[in-house]
Amino acid sequence: MSPASQIALRNGQLPLQPTGFVGRQPEIATLGTLLSRSRLVTVTGPGGVGKTRLALHYAAKVASRYKHGVVFAELSGLRDPGLVPLSVASAVGLSQLDGREPLDLLIDHLRDRETLLILDTCEHLVDACAMLAEAIEREAPSVTLLATSRQPMDAPGESICPLAPLAVPEPGTAPADGDAVELFAQRAAAAVTDFRLTGDRVEQVIRLCRQLDGIPLAIELAAVRLRAFDLPELTRRLDRRLHVLSGGRRAVAPRHQALRDTIGWSYDLCTPDEQTLWNRLSVFAGPFTVSAAEEVCGGGSVSSALVLDLLIALVDKSVLVREDGPVPSYRMLDTIREYGAEQLGQAGPADQVRTRLLGYYRSLAEDLDADPLTGQLEKYRTLRAQRESVRAALRYGFGLPGQERAAARLAVSLYWYFLISGELSEGRYWLARTLEVAPDPSPERAAALLMDGLVLTAQGVPGAGIAECEEGLAIAEAVGADRVRARGYFYYCEALVAAGRLPEALDAGRTAKKLMAKSGDTGTAEALRLYMGLAHLLTGDLDACLSLCAEGLRQVPSENGERWLSSFLLVLSSLSLSIRGDHDRAAAALRQALAMRQELGDPMGMGYCLGVKAFLSLQQGRPTETAWLVGAASPVWKALGTEPFTGVPGLADLLSGAEATARADIGDDAWDATFARAAKYPLEEAAALAARDDRLARAVTEQGPPSGDGTRPPARLTAREREIAALIADGLSNRDIGASLFISKRTVDSHVEHILSKLRVRSRTDVARLIREQHEQSGTKDS
C-alpha cells in the first residue's frame, strides 16, 4: 500500500468493531461474487440487520487486493445532500484547499486509483449517493463501490445484495445450525460472565431468537437484559411485550417490526428520566461528550446533575455506546436514535432541545473564536470530535424559524475551527447559507463575506478573495461592526500577501493591528504577526520577519495548549534563519514545529515542515537530502489533491527554486531514485526521521523503509509512540522526553499510558526490555 493511501485511511479508515463478527459466511461469499461482476454493490436490508458490520468485515478481508486500499465514508450523521461529495472527499483524505467543486476534486483523485470505497448508510441521501456513484463509475474505472442502505439506490449498473436476518434453528435442532443463537450466546457471555449455553437454555435461546426474527441488533439488545433478568424471565417478558404490541398476530408481523418492538421494550424498561434523556440525546447526530449532554439535555425533571448517572445507565442498557479517544464521548446507533427522535417529537418540545443544541455549539465555537490561543488544542479537538452534531446544529438553526441569525453566528464563529481543520470547502457551504439568510447589510453578512474571502485566498484564488474582503469591509464599516472590521483587515492582509501585493498587505496589517487593539481581539492579533512576518520575508526584510515571529512566540507559549499558530511561526522562523545562514537555530525551530504538527495530527502541516526542511538541507549543502525530503512530502500533496504551499505563491516559488537547484546538483537520475525511495515512507515515520539529522542521513542512503527496524516496538504503535518508546529505553524520564521532543510532560504521560496498554506491559522497564530484545533480534544498534 502506498503512503498516499495510508494518509487516506487515517481519514476514512475502517472503524474498529468493539464486538466479534458472527456467521454470515454465505452472505460474504455472495458479496464477493457480486463485487467480482459489478463495480457497484448495495447491501440492503432493514435497520439493525447488520449491513454495516457485513461491509466492514468483508472489506477487512479483501483490503490487500486493492492497490490503494479501502476507504470508509460514514454518512449516517449527514443530512445535507449537498455535502455528500465533500464528505466522501474528506474520507478519501483530500484537502479542501482546492477551490474546485468537491465532486470534480474527488473524481480527479479517484480517476487512476484502485480502491474499494464504502458508502455507509445511504438511505436518507439516496439520490445524492446515486448521483455520486454514477459519476465515479463513469469517470474512475478502477474504483469499486460498496454501499449500505435500507433501499437500493437505483443507480446504473447497481447490483443488490439483500441481507436477511440471521438464521435461527428449528426447535429441537442443534444450536450450531443457527448464527442467531451463537450471537446471543456471545453477547450474553459478555453481559453476564458465567452465562453458558447448556441444557434447557438452548431451547429457550432458540425460542427467544425466533421471537426476534433473527435481527442482530434486537438480539444484542435482548442479551444485555440478562443483567436484570434470568433467561426464563427474559423470554417470558419479551414474549408478553411482543404479543401485546402485535395484537397477538406475530406470524404476520413484518420482520422489521421485531427490532422496533425490541427497542420499544428496552425503552419501556428504562426509568422515566432515562427515557427523557434518550429522547433528548437523539438531537445529536454523532458522538457527544458528557458536557454536551448536560448542557443540551439537562432541564426539567432531568437536571444537569443527573445526566452523568443516566448516561452510565443507558450504556449499561446498550442504548448508548461509549467511545474512547482524545475526547471521550458517547454515541447512539441510528435505529435507536430514530426511535428517540420519534418519542421526542411526540413529547412536544423538540425545537427547544434543538435550540439548546444550537446554543451549545455556538458557545463552543465562540469560545475558540474569542480566545483561540488558550487551550486551543482541547477546544479544537472537542469541536472536531463532535463535528457531525455541529453540522446538525447548523442545519436545525437555518431551518428553524427565528433561529437563522443564531445559526449564522455559529457559522461565522467557526473561523478558527475551519482554519485548523482545513475544512474550508465545508466552511464555504455554511457561509453561503449565512449569506442567504442575511441578504441585507449586517454584521453577520459582513463576517460571512470576509471569511469567504479568506477561504478563497487559502484555496488559491486571492483575486476573488480580495473582492469579497473589500465588500465585507464596506458593510462592516457601514453597520458599525468594529470587531468584524478589525478582523476583516486581517483577512484582507492575508489575501494581499497571497496576491503578491506586499506593500498593500503591510498597510492592511497595520490597520488591522490598530483596530484589533481597540476591539480586544488579541488572539487574532497574534495570528496577524504570521502574515505580516511572511510579507516581510517575501520583501527580503528578514530582521522584521524574525522579530515578529519571536514576539509572537513569546506571547503564545506552547504550554497553554496552542499549536496551530506557534508551529507556523516556528516554520517561518526556520525559513528566515535558513536564508540568513543560521542553520542550527533553523533546524531547532523546525523540530519544534514538526512536533506540534504531529500532535495536531495534521498531514498538510507536516508536509509544510518537510518542504522547509528540504530548503534548509540545500542551504547546508545536502541536495540529496533535499530530494529525499521532497519525495517524503509528495504523498501528502498527492493524497490531499493540492500543490505544495497553495495560497502562498511567493513561498511556493522560493521552495520550488530550491528543488530545481538540488535536482541540477545531483542529476535527474539520482533525484528520481531518491525521491521514489522516500515516497515509500509513511508520513509520520518520515517526519520523525526529519526531526533527527543523524537518522535522516541514514535514511537517505537506505533503499526504503525497513520492514523490521530494531529501534521500533511492534507496528501497532504510532510513529510518535515508537519514538517515545525508544527514548524510554535510553533511560529518559517523561519530563526529559518532553524537553527532547518539544512537547509537554502531560502529553508524554498520555503517550506512555497508550504504549503500556498497547504492548500489554505494566512498567517502563518492560518497555525498555522489549526494545532491547528487538534490538538483539535485528542485530542493529539504536541511534
What this model shows, in words?
- There is one protein chain.
- With 783 residues, the protein is mainly α.
- The strands form two sheets. Strands 2-3-4-1-5 form a five-stranded parallel beta sheet, sandwiched between helices. It has a two-stranded antiparallel ribbon with strand order 6-7.
- Helix 8 (201-211) runs parallel beside helix 10 (231-245) and helix 31 (623-640) packs antiparallel against helix 34 (683-690).
- The radius of gyration is 28 Å and the shape is globular.
SSE topology:
Layout: H1 3-12, H2 25-37, E1 40-44, H3 51-62, E2 70-74, H4 84-92, H5 102-110, E3 115-120, H6 126-139, E4 143-149, E5 158-162, H7 179-191, H8 201-211, H9 216-223, H10 231-245, H11 255-268, H12 272-281, H13 290-297, H14 304-316, E6 321-323, E7 329-331, H15 334-347, H16 350-370, H17 376-385, H18 387-399, H19 404-413, H20 415-421, H21 424-437, H22 443-458, H23 462-479, H24 482-498, H25 502-519, H26 522-539, H27 542-555, H28 564-580, H29 583-600, H30 603-619, H31 623-640, H32 649-666, H33 668-678, H34 683-690, H35 693-701, H36 719-729, H37 734-741, H38 745-759, H39 764-778
Parallel strand pairs: 1-4, 1-5, 2-3, 3-4
Antiparallel strand pairs: 6-7
What proportion of the residues is helical, as a percent range? 55-70%
What is the terminal separation in angstroms?
Answer: 28 Å
Trace the largest sheet across and list its strands.
Answer: 2-3-4-1-5
Shape: globular
